[in-house]
Design goal:
By secondary structure, this protein is an all-alpha fold. The chain has helices spanning 2-34, 38-41, 56-61, 64-97, 103-112, 118-131, 139-142, 151-161, 166-174, 179-190, 192-207, 211-216, 225-234, 245-280.
């Protein structure tokens, strides 16, 4: 039995190692290509490792325009992270801790919006923002976050707040704390895990967003990083980067690293947030 268990474990780990190599190979290949010279990039057969190591591709990547795109992306992220977290948690507090007459009507109506596909609302929203003269501005990517970030975000906060003891809330009421003070000084400190989960989710959504910027942004100075990289490297532009495969690979590495770092740093919080929504939902 021991020999059989050892063989089973060896096969199990061998399969896992092969799967890891299979899924990581494109990313590792991209990293290797980003450090290759122009001669190594066009070598035949293709090289797996650079013969002439260089970081010139990364120096060619960063310029004032790219830094401006990064600034736009970080601005959209910070705006959305604050307002989505604030408005959705405030709405969840009202639904879970307060009693008001139309509560049983508003909540089902809000949750029913989950069944509406996002692609269905894209054209009406485009027409609306165009009539408001918001095209070619960052308003369509930021202002909607003031209204909660979607029903599922509110629902996720509600599921977490339902686990907060009512005795704590009642004790604060006896001490004379109003609703907003109870929300700010009691609920929010206890919601640290779900807040981190929400901020990380907003970061991933903003960092990887392509459809929103390409719909509303025309001026190059207003691009976010994802859209800017697309137009610079995947389309032939007058900047001369179209044929520079090394710069393309460097852009892919730079674009991938922040999302990977955020995931590895906060992976426990992400799993906790998913479990909260899955178990309590």
């Amino acid at each position: 039995m021991k020999v059989r268990e050892i063989i089973t474990q060896c096969v199990y780990y061998l399969v896992l190692v092969l799967l890891v190599i299979f899924f990581l190979f494109p990313f590792l290949f991209m990293i290797s290509k980003s450090f290759m010279s122009d001669y190594d990039l066009i070598a035949s057969p293709p090289l797996l490792f650079p013969q002439e190591f260089t970081i010139r591709n990364y120096f060619n990547l960063f310029d004032s325009e790219m830094i401006g795109w990064l600034g736009n992306t970080l601005y959209v992220f910070c705006f959305n992270a604050f307002f989505v977290t604030f408005s959705s948690s405030l709405s969840a507090f009202a639904f879970t801790k307060l009693d008001f007459k139309i509560k049983k009507i508003v909540f089902p109506v809000m949750m029913s919006t989950v069944m509406i596909p996002g692609i269905v609302t894209s054209i009406p929203l485009y027409v609306l923002y165009n009539n408001m003269n918001w095209r070619n501005t960052l308003f369509p990517l930021t202002i909607p976050s003031i209204f909660g970030g979607g029903a599922m975000t509110v629902f996720l906060f509600m599921q977490f707040m339902r686990g907060i003891s009512r005795e704590i809330d009642n004790a604060a009421k006896i001490d004379g704390a109003g609703p907003f003070r109870r929300y700010l000084q009691i609920c929010m400190p206890l919601c640290k895990s779900i807040i981190i989960f929400q901020v990380v989710s907003v970061f991933n959504g903003v960092w990887n967003d392509y459809m929103g910027p390409i719909m509303y942004l025309d001026e190059r100075s207003k691009y976010t990083l994802g859209l800017g990289i697309y137009y610079r490297f995947l389309q032939q532009t007058d900047l001369g980067f179209g044929a520079n495969d090394g710069a393309k690979m460097a852009a892919g590495v730079v674009f991938s690293i922040p999302a990977a770092i955020v995931f590895f740093v906060f992976q426990k919080r992400l799993v906790d947030g998913i479990m909260i929504g899955g178990i309590k939902g």
